[in-house]
Amino acid sequence: QVQLVESGGGLVQAGGSLRLSCVASGSIFSINAMGWYRQAPGKSRELVALITSGGSTNYADSVKGRFTISRDNAKNTVYLQMNSLQPEDTAVYYCNADVSVIASFPSYRYWGQGTQVTVSS
Fold first, then answer.
1. 32-62 as b/e, with b when 16 or more CB fall inside 10 Å?
2. Which pLDDT value is given to residue 113?
3. How many other CB atoms sit within 10 Å of the CB of residue 28?
4. For position 1, what pLDDT does the model report?
5. Which run of H or of E encompasses 37?
6. Rounded to an integer, what distance in angstroms lies between the CA atom of residue 66 and that of residue 86?
């Protein structure tokens, strides 16, 4: 019904930058909140950043000041600009979107397949 595809992950040295993208496609009427989560090996998934339809943002304390979330509603895309990357940022990053597929119907949160980010020291 709705698919989210992440891209932009890769290998970078500490202090470097990456920009993740997530494109939503399918039967989309509107997208409400969009966010990025990450999961490191052996650890639970955690929220990294969130952006609402009104542009309000929320960041995990560990990435505040280094990461920036943004969105392009016309392209159904959310971005995560990651600067000053550190080894502890290494994880699979997943995008999430609260999507309405029919006007006035309840929305549902969809997940992407994830993209690997590896930061070497």
1. ebbbbbbeeeeeeeeebbbbeeeeeeebeee
2. 97
3. 16
4. 84
5. strand 30-39
6. 10
